[in-house]
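Lab notebook, bench 4. Still working through the backlog of constructs that have no structural model yet. Next entry is a single chain of 343 residues. Request: give me the structure tokens for it.
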Amino acid sequence: MDPDPAHDRLINRCLDEYAATQHQKRAAANAIQDAIAARLDDDGLNYHAIEHRVKDHQSLEQKLRRRNPDGSLKYADGLSGIDDIIGARVITFLQLDVERAITALRNSFEVIAHVDKTAEQREKGEFGYSGQHLVLRISEDAAPNGCRHHIGERFEVQFRTILQHAWAEFEHDIRYKSAGPVPPEVNRAFTLASGLIELADNQFSTISNVVAAEKANPDESTRLLPEDLTGEALERILEHSLPNNPRSRIEQYEWLRELLETHGITTVAQASELMGSADWEGIARRIQYKFAPGHVRAADDLLLVRYGQEHIDKTQTLGHDRNRLGKLNHRLRRLRDEPGTQR
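Model written out:
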């Protein structure tokens, strides 16, 4: 136990304060996860999983008891100095998807801090934990849908590839469950594994780029596709039409098929003609994307350009996004800001 009575009193006050607000923290954490998923899905980005948690009583007490190397209290200001009481994690397949997810969330929340653990390791010439952390705040000026009741809430989001996540979870499990100091050979093994994971992540990115270039070949992209339109066929068509845009989640292509069906587009030939004749650069110029959108988001905007209000009327209730109507209206206004909209 901490021998400092004043510190003990501070910790007890903090824990009492936290106990009184824990229910609100859980509600905020749920709203934050929903907002993160909605933003990534709305941008058509691909990811493996989104997780969230709220610190439990024991974990918070352990953190409050930490001291700096000089013996001073690390969290002398109590709860106001802790940014990860609410924590979320975005796990992606590729490193580039990490960067895209970070950009998306930087435009949804107020950024308090950004720590790139991967870059820090690289600058030191070391291997170890990799990932990026954002400390964010729900601002009053631009609170995402569902977060209006949690203005001012701070939280941390960790971004990792699926390989970085596996390393971090296993390493954490070994160290925290160890009865004593971890043997040097275990530390060395974790360091070696970290280097291999960085190499594997780089190779996955190379593979993705090579495959995207191959699928951009029109002879290869559609020659074996069935006549009837499917989610898989749409993925292949968009990989050809938008080779430099990120792939969306698999289930989103099936949702896009439903959108197209409302406009009578039900065959591969019809979809290929629509996507192949699109003015993608013109759409991007009018929308002013912060980064290249995923396939499905780009195609949804194409349908807005082509069908306008009709697309909103026919598809506003399709899918799980309860705020789709407002988003479509906002995007249609942006698309109509510049003359020469494709019809």
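Notes after review: The chain has 14 helices and five strands. Confidence is low (pLDDT under 50) at residues 339-343. Flag for follow-up if needed.
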